[in-house]
């Protein structure tokens, strides 16, 4: 149902995360995720601790789900940071969704630093029974 990510886009994403958009070295930004099927929907959960819900952008175009979020620095001006291990900046991740998912009815929620995206399985992809017609011995079988 979820399709593998395009390796060239992943390589480009990793390169941007490691080297930054300005060509300087930085730590990789992360947006770890879990994806699983639960009944008639797929659930994808992204870890985004410290990210404001207002800075999360979620969109779908041609079966590509794009998640963008920004974690801003909490250190004010004139403060000398001693250790900065937590990634900051803009995070982005794309998932290629299969044709069997209903991208028109995606729902998302954000709670305790976890973005949960629920994508229903399209009706056309669900198992259904097909009637066999013909005489007295007509019966139903699973399709």
TrEMBL record:
Residue stretches making up the SHSP domain: 24-135
InterPro entries per record: A-crystallin/Hsp20_dom, HSP20-like_chaperone, Small_HSP
SUPFAM superfamilies named among the record's database cross-references: HSP20-like chaperones (SSF49764)
Superkingdom of the source species: Bacteria
Gene3D superfamilies: 2.60.40.790
Family: Belongs to the small heat shock protein (HSP20) family.
Name under which the protein is recorded: HSP20 family protein
Organism per entry: Haloechinothrix alba
């Amino acid at each position: 149902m979820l399709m593998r990510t395009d390796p060239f886009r992943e390589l480009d994403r990793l390169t941007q995360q490691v080297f930054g958009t300005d060509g300087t070295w930085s730590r990789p930004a992360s947006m770890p995720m879990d994806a699983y099927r639960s009944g008639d929907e797929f659930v994808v959960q992204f870890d985004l601790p410290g990210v404001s819900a207002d800075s999360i952008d979620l969109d779908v175009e041609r079966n590509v789900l794009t998640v963008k979020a920004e974690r801003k620095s909490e250190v004010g001006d004139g403060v000398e940071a001693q250790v900065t291990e937590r990634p900051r900046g803009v995070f982005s991740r794309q998932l290629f969704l299969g044709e069997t998912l209903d991208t028109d009815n995606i729902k998302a929620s954000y709670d305790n630093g976890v973005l949960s995206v629920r994508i229903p399985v399209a009706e056309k992809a669900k198992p259904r029974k097909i009637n066999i017609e013909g005489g007295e011995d007509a019966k139903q079988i699973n399709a």
